Amino acid sequence: xxxxxxxMSLKKLALxxxxxxxxxxASSGYSNxxxxxxxxxxxxxxxxxxxxxxxxxxxxxxxVARSQNxxxxxxxxxxxLSITESGSRYALPAFKFDSRPPQQRxxxxxxxxxxxxxxxxxxxxxxxxxxQARRSRQSWIPRGTAGCxxxxxCVFPWDSTPSEEIILPIQKYAQIFxxxxxxxxxxxxxARGIRLYHIGSGIYKNWLRxxxxxxxxxxxxxVNTFDRRxxxxxxRIDKHLRNAGVIL
Length: 248
Prior knowledge:
Blueprint: H1 4-16, H2 58-67, H3 72-86, H4 122-126, H5 131-134, H6 162-182, H7 187-199, H8 201-213, H9 216-221, H10 233-243
């Protein structure tokens, strides 16, 4: 069962959004605790939860995704995203995770803070927490510290309950899915929007702006032009959606 601290966090979460919070146990996904990773990633604080076994989060991901009432394509897209990002594991640090200060990291190694079921990093996670709520978080750092550029400061993804780890990203994906649909896109366009946002919010915004000006078919044909790094976003994302059963 949830302890008092997690119940308080869920209460705050319910106040933050109109979607009812699900009760996800603090020990969710840890029934086979012997399989959990116990080696602490560089810079990860002692209070951060240890990773769960593979696919331990998948039932909760599906349950929360279905609660958004956006259809099977949304559910399939979100479930597959959790698998490709973390193996649908709770509390998983990124493969090259290192949140230590610059002077403690190997020369040339960047700050890497992606963590959790959906692998949100510090800045992406901070955008999910209302500015007025960030300062009360244990991991809060002020603007200008360790590269944080947000006026209300930054917080880290491991400073979360299991419920928040799943619910907050899925609510963001639901917002994106609905935004694309209300802009004239179909469900596949909306699924592509979720994947684009996960690669980069700026890429997603530029693609959506172009789609609104022209149409979604033209925007998708030109999606690679929105990436300064020259990646094949169209091929990469459509491969994921085929594997998820969203497109043929």
